[in-house]
């Protein structure tokens, strides 16, 4: 991994002249009070390595007669310089090859010199950066789309099932009603059949009365007309036979009542209302059951998709143990970004930056005064363990600071010059051998 071995910055923003040799691994903490030049050091490094898009809007120190000067010596032997009126870039490659911003871009990760861009991104943007660098972003996106599609279908089915169940619950039920709606024409037909049978019965009754009258008349005729006795007896015997048949038929006759049909005809609308209500209730209960079954099936499908997502991330080459993505957000040891400690947030950011460009072995961090001493120590130990270099600032002059910036200088280097003012002879390039030495604090 490529790291920063040495940096020299002069007349950049609030920096007058500083020379720093950051520790190769771990945390180099640049301390000092406000408005002394701490952040200017980081801005200078970002400008030197990131190009003119990181050039401060007021790059030259106010009151300076000498233009900004930047020189960074990297662990791969490259020397990066920006100097002169236009702060032109010069990259000195020890191998003799031509070099420039394109070479720097090949191994300097943008987020390493602009970590706030990652820290201030939304949770979804952070997760997307991680998913893209581990190569599962597209697959996870497809699974998330599938999960959302199935979830939406299940939600719609669940709403319909609830509506059907509510509809069935609110519907009245009439246990005494028939299963199917009844027809008025059918009841009238049945009534007409009964009336027809009753009419036939009446005809037979009338016939009985007629035969009885004839029999009586004939017996009188027998009495009165003795001379016609033989004929009358024969006719009487025939009539007696007919009478026996008629009497037998009359005994078995039974008139059917139409009262129930007439009542049904009068109540047909009410009966059919009850029947339809029962049918609606039965159908709603059946539909509710069907939709609940569909809902359960879709739930199983969602769980299967979520398991695929879990397996995808479990098998992925994540940059940090305990790091994962859930519902489009980064999780570290089960905690979402806003629940992570400051040290954990920086660990996650640094690990992702390293994964983006493994050759970039450093990061720049500003404003670490928000972290307590334990968190600083924890983060510094993790950087050393991972072999990463971090150059950071903190509003403090305590022992935790590697160096202290005072009025644009490193404490102990006051008054050094990295460039000669116009008109003076340049004694040589590189470090000013006669400049006061400085001692890095130990974190």
TrEMBL record:
Keywords (alphabetical) are: Coiled coil
Coiled coil among keywords: yes
Can you tell which superkingdom this protein's organism belongs to?
Answer: Bacteria
Q: Which residues form a coiled coil?
A: 208-308
Q: Which residues form the Rad50/SbcC-type AAA domain?
A: 6-272
Q: Which Pfam families match?
A: AAA_23 (PF13476)
SUPFAM superfamilies for the chain: P-loop containing nucleoside triphosphate hydrolases (SSF52540)
| InterPro entries assigned | P-loop_NTPase, Rad50/SbcC_AAA
Give the start-end ranges of region Disordered: 421-443
Full protein name: AAA family ATPase
**What lineage does the source organism belong to?**
Bacteria, Bacillati, Bacillota, Bacilli, Bacillales
